[in-house]
Specification:
Radius of gyration: 16 Å
Strand order of the largest sheet: 3-9-1-2-8-6-7-5-4
CATH superfamily: Cyclophilin-like
CATH topology: Cyclophilin
Distance between the termini: 33 Å
Number of domains: 1
Order of helices and strands: HEEHEEEEEEHE
Number of helices: 3
CATH class: Mainly Beta
Shape: globular
Number of strands: 9
Largest sheet: 9 strands, antiparallel
Length: 177
Amino acid sequence: MRKGLILLACLAAGPAAASGIEISLSGGVEGTVRIDLLEDVAPNHAERITALANRDAYDGVVFHRVIDGFMAQTGDVQFGRADGDMSRAGYGGSDLPDLAQEFSDIAFEPGVVGMARSGNSVDSANSQFFIMTEPAPHLNGDYTVVGRVTEGMDLINRIPATGQGEMVVMDEVTTTD
C-alpha cells in the first residue's frame, strides 16, 4: 500500500521542469542566451516554458516587442513566427491553457525573465515572456518572475527596439539540466 501511494504521488507531481533553456539567436543579433528557470519560485510557468521548448514551439519565434531601456519580449508561438504573417505578433499564445499567477518578491531587474500576460488578467500568462534590460519596480509583485539570464545578456541588450532594425529570431530553444 505504501509503495502504491509513493508511486501515485510521483505520477501526480508530473514531469520535472528543466533547470533552464538555451536560446540560439539569429537576425539582427546572433549568439546564445542561457536562462536559469526558477522552478522553486514559479513551478507552473517554468514547466510551461520547458514543455514548449521540448515541443520546439519557440523555434523560429521573433522578439516582437522591444522597448529601449525596459525589456525585450518574445514567445508568441501562435502569431510571432519569423516565417509567418507578423501582423498579430504579440496577441497569441500556445494551445495550452493560460496559467494562474505565481507572484514572488523577486524584483524586476536587468536579466530577470517575466511572463507576459494578456490584458489586465493576472491569470492569463501562456507562452510569451520578457527579459528586463533595466530595472522596472512598477512590475514588482504584479507579474510572475520565471527565470534569470545567466549568459548572453549583452546580446539581449543589443536587440534593436521594435521597428528600429532587423528582427531577432529565436532559431532554436532547448532545455538544459
